[in-house]
Design a protein that fits this description.
The protein is an alpha/beta fold. About 50% of the residues lie in helices and about 15% in strands. The chain contains 18 helices and eleven strands. The radius of gyration is 23 Å and the shape is globular. This is Cyclopropane-fatty-acyl-phospholipid synthase.
């Protein structure tokens, strides 16, 4: 076995039962013998060397390309064991720290998301076949962290609760408020605000696939007069808006553009307006995005620390009025996505190929384990431009969330009754 890889595993794995079959067919085991045994096999010496020198990038890469296989357990089980043992110190070895330092130096170039590059980055991920996302997302195509009000909530229930939770924080306290949805996805959030709160929504995206589906959904729901969707960079959007919401888009802005992002939001937000930003974040100081995810899944993506976001918002002229940290909610969301994707893996393979399926299996498993045992959380940050723009206690959020929950439950009951009658006929 590669000596560097052996040294790494000697110092990393202390609990569990983890075996590695090297490219010569020899097997070695680490851990204390507890838990379900897990085994990984390397198929080539080149794969061993690659993982030994740069595991954060190469383990996923060689798995995707068939250089290694999980022959006992699953990829999720393997990553869970690694992160449970390592905690937030996977890159604590000297050579790994050197690689991460070089990545930090290059961060300004990698994350320089100009309008043209931002469009290219979005097309790389969000313009994949819409049939792929049908395999694992909820019915409303919410591709961001759900909100689990109950541990046993379904994915559909938790995603609806997320929209409700965000809407309550926006305080849409009168009809016809003009709302900008930055990074509107397939339109679910904007359509919820238009339908349930009579908002006039402008949603912007850089994805052709998302735009087409969002517009179709608005027409189909009879909401095209209230929900307008555009293929437009947020920097080109003109105001004013009474409310701004952005869910799962800030991760694509790039640290070098945070000041421009918040300055533009402040410029187009009315003086008594409210902004709600929902973004993946890290609970520790600024660092690097996972190398595999950055290279293969979200090019140009960057996960910010709270200090980076707050400093840029302050410079942009916004006042932070509420902060909530969603812990573990995204891990539960990703669990649902991972299980749904694996249940329909053959359909994904028919759309793309085995390499693609391995890439996505690793991406979903690595993301879930990162939210469970590493440094990732979700921030929901509310901003205003004036101190008196909102009530001085949070009671209005709870009251509005309760009201919207009742509306959602009534709507669900109506749909269920209609379906029941149609089935009976």
């Amino acid at each position: 076995m590669n000596r560097i890889l052996k040294y790494y595993l000697d110092t990393l794995i202390h609990t569990g039962t983890f075996s590695v079959i090297d490219a010569d067919g020899k097997c070695a085991t680490w851990g204390d013998g507890t838990g379900e045994p897990l085994t990984v096999r390397f198929n080539t010496h080149a794969a061993e060397r690659a993982v030994a020198l740069n595991p954060s990038l190469k383990f996923g890469e060689v798995y995707m390309n068939g250089g290694t296989d999980v022959v006992q357990g699953t990829m999720y089980d393997v990553l869970a064991l690694i992160f449970r043992n390592a905690g937030n110190h996977v890159t604590s070895r000297p050579w790994m720290r050197a690689i991460e330092k070089m990545r930090r130096v290059a961060r300004g170039i990698v994350h320089y998301n100009t309008p043209r590059r931002a469009r290219s980055n979005v097309k790389h991920h969000y313009d994949l076949s819409s049939e792929l996302y049908d395999l694992f997302l909820d019915e409303d195509r919410q591709y961001s962290c759900a909100y689990f009000e109950r541990p046993d909530a379904t994915l559909e229930e938790a995603q609806l609760a997320k929209k409700r939770h965000i809407a309550a924080k926006l305080r849409l306290d009168r009809e016809d408020l003009r709302v900008l949805d930055i990074g509107c996805g397939w339109g679910g959030m904007g359509l919820y605000l238009a339908r349930n709160l009579s908002a006039n929504v402008v949603g912007v995206t850089l994805s052709d696939e998302q735009l087409a589906i969002a517009r179709h959904r608005a027409e189909e729901a009879g909401l095209a007069d209230r929900a307008e969707f555009r293929l437009q960079d947020y920097r080109k959007t003109q105001g004013p808006f009474d409310r701004i919401v952005s869910v799962g888009m800030f991760e694509h802005v790039g640290a070098g553009f945070y000041d421009a992002y918040f300055s533009h939001c402040a410029e187009i937000l009315e003086n008594d307006g409210v902004m709600l930003l929902h973004t993946i974040g890290r609970y520790d100081p600024p660092g690097n995005t996972n190398a595999f995810v950055q290279k293969y899944i979200f090019p140009g993506g960057y996960i910010p620390s709270l200090s980076e976001v707050m400093a840029a918002a302050e410079r942009g002229g916004l006042i932070v009025s509420d902060v909530e940290v969603l812990r573990v909610h995204y891990a539960e969301t990703l669990k649902h996505w991972r299980e749904r994707f694996l249940a329909r893996r053959e359909e994904a393979k028919a759309l793309y190929d085995e390499r693609f399926c391995r890439m996505w299996e690793f991406y979903l498993a690595a993301s879930e384990t990162a939210f469970r045992w590493q440094n990732l959380v979700v921030f929901q940050l509310q901003f205003t431009k004036h101190l008196d723009a909102l009530p001085i206690t949070r009671g209005y959020m709870n009251a509005e969330e309760d009201r919207l929950r009742q509306l959602d439950e009534t709507a669900a009951e109506t749909v269920s009754n209609l379906r029941g009658r149609e089935a009976a006929e």
